[in-house]
Structure formats: structure tokens, C-alpha cells
Design brief:
CATH topology of the largest domain: TIM Barrel
CATH architecture of the largest domain: Alpha-Beta Barrel
Order of helices and strands: EHHEHEHEHHEEHEHEHEHHEHEH
Strand content: 5-15%
CATH class of the largest domain: Alpha Beta
Helix content: 40-55%
Strand order of the largest sheet: 1-2-3-4-7-8-9-11
Distance between the termini: 23 Å
């Protein structure tokens, strides 16, 4: 038996005196002094968490959050910095929003970071559900980012996502590539290739085979460097409700990362096993599964409710609620706190209460990975680190999982 692999997922939520304080300090996300303090405190957080024995340290890609909720526009920069600070933990991001990204540039950037941390690296991908920034940075044509609503826009978003994720994999694992995707092509233009490349002679003689054709045009490209890990770093995919995302992960050996209620997680974890079997891949239940929770470990249940109120209510009500209708909402604060507990994504109370709730999940479907999110720095660093230490010391040992071997094909 083994213990689940714990990932501390960090994105700064600029602190304020609740919702009204945030309104009074508009636009809080532009406060450079706060961000300067936070980004340097981040160094201390990752070093301390590494010493506690977490398996991974992650962040996000989110842009344009003037409200100050999730200020995380460049995960690669942060991961590169952490590679010089962290001794044992894996680092990564959950993750790159591929509908807004160039797949070749993502392949290059992540391969570099993989080398910088000697292979202690994972790469996360996400579809992108926030139209305020995905439409702008992704330059969608006539569509909007969606939250798995089965619309035409949702279908296009998924097509772009899956195409570009698989192109990153190809760029990592093939000596050279030629993409003729529906949404992304390389070399470009496809009909002629890149003509009149000035250094075509040496590229044809010393570059990858097939890069230069008989007419001197660039017909394939070699994406370098290649990752340190072979065939490539572990790949995680954010999922909030869609079975199609789980099936995509199962077919390709990716790790779905569940921002879901336990009942839905259990259903999807079994779907992952079933989908793998359809493609000749034998997964154990819980293998390659990553469940996400927002925890608080407190001295009393009343203290737990207070921390939900102080650190989580604002973002749950004003940010999660509008985007994720599966998470219950309420008009008044007291009932809203109840709704947060019913959402299935918050977990906590005393150590004993926390263990009981985690065991209820693991008795239905274990998870090889656990991702924990605190709304730091709305939640002060010292509170977050104390709760993480209690989780690692007291809760985690109660959650043994099988020693998962590589999936059999």
C-alpha cells in the first residue's frame, strides 16, 4: 500500500475585507504592492511545503482578474522559479489553457522546465471556461468559452483543446512534426511550406530528416528541446463535469483532475476504467485519478465555518457560482455557508471530521493524487501552512491506496 500523492495548488487571491472590501478597493488586482508581497511569500510557501513532503506544487493560468480573485497569468515563469527552490517535490501547473496557447510554444516551454527541475515536473492542461479572457487571448471566431453545455461553442472549444494537447504530445515525442489540424497547422502555409528559408542548405543537411524538401521548402519542423522525462512529463487535465474529458484522458493515459462533487467523481473514476478497457488499457480503480478539494482543518466545527466565511465565501459566491451552476448558491450568508458545504468541493472541520470525510470518498473510489487548494493569500500563509501540516501528519496516513503499477495494455 502507498499514500496518495498530495499537490498543493496555489493561486493568489488578493486579500480584502470580504466582498464589500473588494468593491471598495476596486480594481484590487492592479495593486502592485500586494502582488510583490505575495509573489515573494510564494517562495517561502513552496519551500515549506516541499519540506512537509508534498508530491507536487501547482499553479494556474488565468488572466485579467481585476477583482483580484485569481491572479495567475504565467504558470511557466513561476514553475521555472520554483525549480531553483524546491528540492524534492514535483512542480507544474493545472494548467495551460490550450485554446489560448500555441502548442509548439507550450511544448518548448514545458520541456525547458522539465530539464530545469531534473524531471520533477508535471504538465496540466485546461479547456478554458472564462470568456472574458479566453475569447481575447484565444481570438475565437464567433464562439465563446463554455462550461460543458453541449453547445456548438462547447464543441469547438473541445475540438481546439484536444487537437492542441495532442500536438504538444507529438512535438515532445517525435523528432519532427507536420501538423495539419483543423485549427492549427505547421509548417505554415501548408500548400507550399515555408519557402526561401535562407539557411535551408544546412537545415537540409544537418537538421531532422524531412524538414527541407527537394525544392528547399520547410515541410516539417523539429521542436526542441525535448523533455527530460521519457516519453514526456505526466499530463493532467482539469475536469469539472464532462464525461468526454474523462474519456479523452483514459484513451491517452492522462490524469483527470476532478473539480467535482464526490458522487460525480466516483461515477467518472469508474468511467475512466471502462473507457480504458475499451482501448485495451487496464486501469485499477483510482489509478491516474486526481481529486481536488478546498480543505480547512480546525479545532472545532464552528471555527471551520468561520474560516469558510472569512476565506472562501466571497470567491465561492461571486466567482465559482456564476461559472459552475452545479455548485449550489443562496441569497443569505448563513444559508450560503450551508450551500458551500453541500457543494462537495469543501472539506474539513476537526482532524477527526476531516478524516471521516476523506474516508467516505476513498471508500467509494480511491484517488492516486489529491490536490488541495486554499484561497491564499485571503487565507493567511500561517493558517494555510498549519492546516497543510495537519493534513500531511494526521489525515493523509489514514488514506492508503494500492501501489499502482503502470497501466497494462
Amino acid at each position: 500500500m502507498a499514500l496518495p500523492k498530495v499537490i498543493l495548488q496555489l493561486y493568489p487571491m488578493f486579500p480584502s475585507a470580504g466582498e464589500e472590501g473588494r468593491k471598495a478597493r476596486r480594481a484590487l488586482g492592479t495593486d502592485s504592492e500586494i502582488y510583490h508581497k505575495i509573489v515573494h511569500e510564494w517562495d517561502d510557501v513552496v519551500v515549506e511545503a516541499d519540506k512537509m513532503g508534498v508530491w507536487g506544487l501547482g499553479t494556474i493560468e488565468h488572466h485579467l482578474h481585476s477583482e483580484g480573485y485569481e491572479v495567475g497569468p504565467n504558470p511557466g515563469v513561476l514553475n521555472a522559479r520554483w525549480s531553483a527552490l524546491v528540492k524534492n517535490a514535483n512542480i507544474g501547473a493545472l494548467g495551460y489553457v490550450m485554446s489560448t496557447q500555441d502548442p509548439i510554444r507550450v511544448a518548448e516551454e514545458t520541456a525547458i522546465i522539465d530539464h530545469m527541475c531534473d524531471g520533477r515536473y508535471f504538465v496540466g492542461f485546461a479547456r478554458g471556461y472564462q470568456s472574458r479572457w479566453t475569447n481575447i487571448l484565444g481570438q475565437f471566431t464567433g464562439t465563446e468559452a463554455t462550461v460543458s453545455d453541449k453547445s456548438a461553442a462547447d464543441h469547438q472549444n473541445r475540438e481546439i483543446f484536444e487537437e492542441r494537447v495532442m500536438q504538444v504530445i507529438e512535438a515532445w515525442t517525435n523528432e519532427s512534426i507536420s501538423f495539419d489540424g483543423k485549427y492549427y497547422k505547421a509548417p505554415f502555409p501548408r500548400d507550399t511550406g515555408v519557402v526561401n528559408y535562407p539557411a535551408r542548405q544546412i537545415a537540409g543537411e544537418a537538421g531532422a530528416l524531412g524538414e527541407i524538401d527537394d525544392n528547399g521548402a520547410v515541410r516539417r519542423v523539429c521542436v526542441v528541446p525535448k523533455p527530460y522525462q521519457k516519453p514526456h512529463p505526466p499530463v493532467m487535465v482539469a475536469a469539472s463535469k464532462s464525461p468526454e474529458s474523462i474519456q479523452f484522458c483514459a484513451r491517452n493515459g492522462f490524469i483527470p483532475t476532478y473539480f467535482m462533487h464526490t458522487l460525480t467523481y466516483v461515477e467518472m473514476a469508474n468511467l475512466y476504467v471502462e473507457e480504458g478497457a475499451k482501448h485495451g488499457i487496464k486501469y485499477a480503480l483510482g489509478q491516474n485519478q486526481n481529486i481536488v478539494r478546498w480543505p480547512h482543518i480546525t479545532k472545532s466545527h464552528d471555527e471551520y465555518l468561520q474560516r469558510l466565511r472569512d476565506y472562501d465565501l466571497d470567491i465561492y459566491k461571486n466567482f465559482y457560482g456564476p461559472f459552475f451552476p452545479q455548485f449550489p448558491q443562496s441569497a443569505d450568508e448563513a444559508t450560503h455557508i450551508d450551500a458551500m458545504q453541500e457543494s462537495g468541493i469543501f472539506i474539513g472541520g476537526t482532524v477527526d471530521e476531516s478524516i471521516r470525510q476523506w474516508r467516505e470518498i476513498y471508500d467509494q473510489a480511491p484517488a492516486e493524487y489529491i490536490t488541495l487548494i486554499w484561497h491564499w493569500a485571503q487565507c493567511p500563509k500561517e493558517v494555510m501552512m498549519d492546516e497543510l501540516q495537519q493534513f500531511m501528519d494526521k489525515v493523509l496516513p489514514e488514506l492508503e491506496v494500492p501501489e499502482f503499477a503502470a497501466a497494462a495494455e
